[in-house]
Specification:
Elements: H1 2-16, E1 22-27, H2 29-37, H3 52-79, E2 82-88, E3 91-94, H4 100-123, H5 128-140, H6 153-159, E4 166-169, E5 173-178, H7 189-192, E6 195-198, H8 215-228, E7 234-238, H9 253-304
Parallel strand pairs: 1-2, 2-4, 3-5, 4-7
Antiparallel strand pairs: 5-6
């Protein structure tokens, strides 16, 4: 499948690369892997509990890397485009930020969603917390090896750095707490992380049942990406909300408020970045210029009074 996808991508580069300058290899691969090969809700409809999602994700990541290298080696110099991947992830907030157990649980939530794909691409391997938990759960179920596949040293080097930008899809946030799964439970991606998700009843009521408007979670996700993955170029590829109620006339207040909140949180992050630039570059430069001007004025003054 990796080679088939590589052939398909190169056909696209050949036919459309003179016009298309931003390529996304996969959009929301988490859903492709988890819903397509774990739950069987999406195509191809397979329910390979405990291993299907991890195997599918493993091949998606390697397929992405192979296509990026192909574009970089063959097409980039001529077409001057960019190749990235689009990852969808909610934000996980510890229900008690002062409790180390809750903080660890929130970290697992992010790593089992975003880090599952982003960590190999930006750091060369799966997150340690993902490897530890899946490996431990596999051992508890009597397996000699982890259900999470491994990358060879050569594959790690090949995959790391294969993204010119990061597409981000984000919709909502969950509070996260520790919840240990029974040892006799059937192996599953959903139970590997030992988590439970909660929502705040004060959050604006959802349109679809899973989507709550929590704008501040978006900014925290962006800051996490900046810190964890070296401040990559980000394109927000998915965000929005469906209608809250059925209307005979146009009634978009729910959507307007949702988008306003999320866009404002994104702009806050941008404003902080600009302020950091001012603090780190502009102010020192102005300070240096002031010193130089003062020295010149002092020299002129001494010359005039000598």
């Amino acid at each position: 499948m990796i080679n088939y996808f590589h052939d398909y991508a190169n056909l696209c580069f050949e036919k459309f690369g003179d016009r298309v300058k931003h390529w996304i290899t996969f959009s929301n691969p988490w859903a492709v892997a988890e819903k397509g090969y774990e739950r069987g809700e999406h195509a191809p409809g397979l329910k390979l509990g405990g291993c299907g999602a991890y195997k599918a994700a493993h091949h998606i990541i390697k397929s992405h890397a192979k296509v990026w290298h192909s574009y970089n080696n063959t097409w980039r110099s001529e077409q001057q485009g960019m190749v990235g991947i689009s990852l969808t992830s909610d934000w996980g907030e510890p229900i008690d930020p002062h409790d180390p157990t809750d903080r660890d649980a929130a970290e697992r939530y992010i790593q089992f969603h975003l880090g599952w794909f982003a960590n190999p691409i930006y750091r060369g391997d799966y997150p340690e917390i993902l490897k530890n938990y899946v490996g431990r759960k596999s051992s508890q179920h009597g397996l000699g090896t982890s259900r999470l596949p491994t990358f060879s040293a050569q594959e790690k080097n090949y995959i790391k750095g294969t993204s010119d930008f990061l597409g981000i899809g984000h919709f909502t946030t969950r509070y996260v707490i520790q919840k240990s799964s029974p040892l006799l439970q059937v192996p599953s991606y959903d139970t590997d992380s030992d988590l439970a998700q909660l929502v705040d009843p004060k959050w604006p009521a959802p349109g679809p049942k899973w989507l709550y408007s929590v704008p501040w979670g978006f900014r925290r996700l962006l800051n996490f990406i900046k810190t964890q993955y070296g401040n990559p170029l980000i394109y927000v590829t998915e965000n929005g909300v469906s209608e809250k109620v059925q209307c005979t006339q146009l009634c978009d207040e729910w959507r307007i408020e949702y988008l306003k909140g999320y866009i404002n949180e994104m702009l806050k992050d941008s404003l902080i970045t600009h302020m950091e630039t001012v603090t780190e570059i502009v102010l020192p430069t102005l300070f240096t210029l002031c010193i130089l001007i003062s020295v010149v004025l002092l020299i002129l003054y001494l010359r005039n009074h000598s």
